[in-house]
């Protein structure tokens, strides 16, 4: 039993240790929370409201000295030994120090496990949320998140800043891929499922972790898709479009909500009393705690003191400082002493934080459960990720009989450097904050996946498409390199000229060309489509590249459907389902559910490339082609 309980009991009672335990067990969670709160000094309370980045700790003993409530690893902030065991040791070391504080209140440690435990080498990496959305399969996404929770728990970590339930309206935004799609419909389907997977109904289980619905609210609606920008919408739209998924997340018991960097009609969310206190907490009944975003408080006012005051009073309960934690603590303390922040507000924040710690059973089981280690990165986990990949792929179009590929007697040319780039396939928030190209972790790249599934068909890889052998069919992989947040904001989403040329060059061989797109969002593909006989976005599929090949070779039918309307050109963005004069290249929810063949060509409009297999022109111009492309949704 913890030190604080003993102190409490010795203050109140003098009973034998057996009956002390019995009394303690009978307290409900709120009573337990109060029993701790009643023992806390103001310094200890403010410490609980403080989250520091691990790398920013001046001394590890500061954890106990300031009784810090929480630590985080920012994107890519890993221990020297970046393995499951290295993380577990790190966590246990920090926790040991936290338990040396006067009241032995355990730390809660948070990470951005946004598509797997993505900072950790060897973790299973799932498709980013945009791909998860395209599965339209909340049961699968729930299972995927159960696995994420297990891998996170295997390193001791208690909490993920996930799911991101942004509703991205403008594909220029670098975080488009972190949301499930452009409508409240998909946000609602996936937010509850993700939270349920991470937390289940039993947060105290060693296999579950605390979730965080983020970023509240309107992050996906900023003008021109500018990261951290201003969302100019009416309150009705804010509620119906951007907030709807929070209702489901709260119903599912989500333990934390992260405030968003963006403003709503000019006012920063971090200091938004009405949206945080009145709407989120009072009206929606959110009983967990609100965490700020990384230095998000700092943006509320040019004076840090004023910024802290407004944010805490607006309902932020824990501040992701993340570096100058000693300064933050001194500022918040002086605000309480001058009555600019009330003690009731502090008590409310600390109650909310302690409650989640009790629900997680951290007081009883503060350390890593080592029995989970063996499942970390296991085949069982990879298989679920592979299924998620398969179901997330959206076959936008395919000429009759081009797919599936044959597993024997074929020579298949694979071109494009993204075919061998595991890092780009994973995207941002993988091993590092921005992500990076190359062999950044364990996994199967697209080419290796094709080789694994191709049977006796011969695979020839040529990065630039040059080859002297006669291939029967080609796969060209194009798309984006990793990014996240503001660094991924773009004014153009056109396919690069180099990649357009690559597709053309391969098409000039006179063979069918299947184009695969690795990207965090729909891109402008009009220049490439005329030279492709099938086109399939892969989104950011993660480490299980076999899942892509399994669909290409027909082990599974294509299943994914778009959660974004696919724009014809940049000028059409932002385009969303329900717009007036809605006329995208591919509709929201479009996605072929089988491979078009000559037999069923009457049911599905087959797409043929500009030149057919014999080299005869089919479309005279791109405009003809685009006008002809008229897939209706569903
Ligand atoms: C992001 C959050 C993330 C936090 C911690 C911020 O920059 O906006 O989504 O959870 O950093 O890494
Ligand atoms: C951190 C991220 C954080 C970002 C915000 C990075 O250095 O690693 O976690 O979101 O800074 O600017």
Shape, per Cα inertia axes: globular
**Beta fraction:** 5-15%
- Overall helicity: 25-40%
Mean pLDDT: 92
Main sheet strand line-up: 12-17-16-15-13-14
Number of helical stretches of at least 4 residues: 21
Q: How is the biggest beta sheet arranged?
A: 6 strands, mixed
How far apart the termini lie comes to: 58 Å
DSSP strand tally: 17
Structural class, by secondary structure, is: alpha/beta
Radius of gyration: 26 Å
Bound compounds, please? Answer: beta-D-glucopyranose
Low-pLDDT runs of 5+ residues are 12-16, 600-634
Q: How is the topology of this model organized?
A:
Blueprint: H1 3-12, H2 17-26, H3 29-37, H4 42-48, E1 50-53, H5 62-65, E2 70-73, H6 84-98, E3 108-111, H7 129-135, H8 138-153, E4 159-160, H9 184-199, E5 212-216, E6 230-231, H10 235-242, H11 244-251, E7 256-259, E8 263-264, E9 267-268, H12 273-283, E10 289-291, H13 304-314, E11 319-320, H14 325-337, H15 343-359, H16 379-392, E12 397-398, E13 411-415, H17 422-426, H18 446-453, E14 458-462, E15 473-479, H19 497-507, E16 513-518, E17 534-539, H20 546-552, H21 622-628
Parallel strand pairs: 1-2, 1-11, 2-3, 3-4, 5-7, 6-8, 7-10, 13-14, 13-15, 15-16, 16-17
Antiparallel strand pairs: 8-9, 12-17
Helix pairs in contact: 3-15, 4-15, 7-16, 8-9, 8-16, 9-11, 12-13, 13-14, 16-20, 18-20
The structure holds beta-D-glucopyranose (2 copies).
One beta-D-glucopyranose (BGC) binds next to loops.
